[in-house]
Amino acid sequence: MAILLDGKALGLAIRETVKHDVDTILRETGVTPHLAVILVGDDPASQTYVKGKENACRNAGIRSTVIREPADVTESKLLSDIDALNADPDVHGILLQLPIPKHLDPDRIIPKIDVRKDVDGFTPENVAALANGRPRLVPCTPRGVMRVLDHYGIAVAGKDCVVVGRSQIVGKPMAALLLNGNGTVTVCHSKTRDLRVETRRADILVVAIGKTRMIDASYIKPGAVVIDVGISKVDGVIAGDVDFDSARTVAGWITPVPGGIGPMTIACLLENTLVCCRSLIGGPHD
Ligand code: GUN
Q: Domain 29-116: which CATH class?
């Protein structure tokens, strides 16, 4: 039976450290780190995620502001929101909650976020820095995955790493981080010819496809590390992209859902907010 990779416990430990660092920054500089979140429309999942981010900020002593815009907001209004946040010296991190409504193009909006306040690591400059192997601000979910691997002493170098999913938010930055860690990386997606053949080669399998419980034991090499980034609700039950009960019989290590990567994403968002705050106020970097 697989060993559980407990992202909940690790996430809480990181949040404690962040809280301590927030206190230190406040004591030494008088500055309270401040994250601004822009939430467009009323997508229930996004509302829940943003609530979670607000709560986590509050518990860590980070100030948070949520700017709510209606689903039919114009691009120019969003750009003026971002301009105002960029110009506000009291704001250290800016996050545009995704997805945004179809009439808006994230690729026209995200690049306007000040790279120094880009807590998601989604601006072209930060994406390029990661791809070039000199990461600055790194997307929170893939960073959370790397933190889990590191914490449990799971080496990436030389391993066959398979990432299922190629989103900008998870799959692509995940592949870049694993590659930077000297893994041998394969990225699979909807056009991959035989997914099972690919995933069964993986020493480290990261799944982010948004298909509830799709990856069962038949996709997993015995003893593999299985990281489930998916999260969905079916019949009131929270589940991942991995069929946990089946996969845990074959995997060597596995993240549960909930309690795996979700809490790590939030913990890494808080850390990124501190990184931004420190660099903006000229304090020491982590
Ligand atoms: N929606 C789902 N995950 C994320 C994330 O990491 N950042 C943002 N901005 N939106 C998301």
A: alpha beta
